[in-house]
Amino acid sequence: AQSVTQLGSHVSVSEGALVLLRCNYSSSVPPYLFWYVQYPNQGLQLLLKYTTGATLVKGINGFEAEFKKSETSFHLTKPSAHMSDAAEYFCAVSDQPGTALIFGKGTTLSVSS
Amino acid sequence: GAVVSQHPSRVICKSGTSVKIECRSLDFQATTMFWYRQFPKQSLMLMATSNEGSKATYEQGVEKDKFLINHASLTLSTLTVTSAHPEDSSFYICSASTRKGETQYFGPGTRLLVL
Fold first, then answer.
1. pLDDT of residue B40
2. Which residues of B have a CB under 8 Å from any CB of A?
C-alpha cells in the first residue's frame, strides 16, 4: 500500500527566506508524485508533478521538487518565500496515471514580513 | 489548464434532507472522477472513484447507499448525500482526469453544513 508522510505540520519562514517542505513516500511500484497547494476554502491547485524522466521538477510560482528514489523523498523547495505563498501544501502519490491520489496530512506554510 | 467546477460552493441543509453536489469538467472529457472529503485542518480522504457509465467504486468505510454517485456523462458527476446528518458536514472536493491522465484536476470544493 502506498502512503505519504509530510514532516512538519506547520512551517514558518520569513519573506525572502528559503522554503523547504518535506515529503516522504512509500510505494511498491514506481510512484507518480504530486504537490498541490490549497488556499482557504478553495480546492487544490497543482504545483508540480513527477511521473518519469528528469528527477528535478519545476513547477509554478517558482517552486521545484526533486525525486530521490534512494531516499523515497520528494521535497518541495522555493528559493525565496513570498507572502502570497502562505497556504496549505499537500504531497500526494499514485501508482498509475489517472488513479486516485493518496495524500499526506498537509503542511501549513506561514510567511512573515 | 483544465478546469473543473463544482456546484454549489456552499450549502446549508437540515438534518434528514438530501443534498446533491455537481462536478463538471468544463474543457475536457473526464473518463474518471474522484470524490474526496476533507475535514477541517485535515487531509483529503478518497471516498469513491467514478468512471463514466459504470458504477462507482467506494473506499472502505464509505456507505454507498448514503453517498450516491452518478457519472452519467464524460463531463458530469454528481454526489448525493442522502439523509444528511451533522456528522456529514465537511468539505467535499471532486477531481477529474482524462483517459490519458497523469494529472487530476480539482474542483473548488463544496462546503456542506448540516444543521
1. 82
2. 1, 4, 6, 31-32, 34, 42-46, 49, 91, 93, 95, 97-109, 111
Chain A interface test: which of B43, B62, B77 (most A C-beta within 10 Å): B43
What string of H, E and C letters represents the secondary structure of chain A? CCEEECCCCEEEEECCCCEEECCEEECCCCCEEEEEEECCCCCEEEEEEECCCCCEEECHHHCEEEEECCCCEEEEEECCCCHHHCEEEEEEEECCCCCCCEECCCEEEEEEC
Cβ separation A45–B106 shorter than 8 A = yes
Q: State the 10-residue block means of pLDDT for chain A, 113 residues long.
A: 90 97 91 92 89 92 95 97 96 85 94 95
Exposed, middle or buried: residue A99 (CB in 10 Å: 0-12, 13-18, 19+)? middle
CB-nearest partner of A42 from B1, B99, B108? B108
Consecutive 10-residue runs of chain B (115 residues): their mean pLDDT? 89 97 91 90 90 88 94 91 96 86 85 96
| CB pair distance less than 8 Å for A49 and B102 | yes
Nearest CA in chain A to B108: A43
Q: Do A98 and B99 touch (CB under 8 A)?
A: yes
pLDDT reported for residue B1 = 65
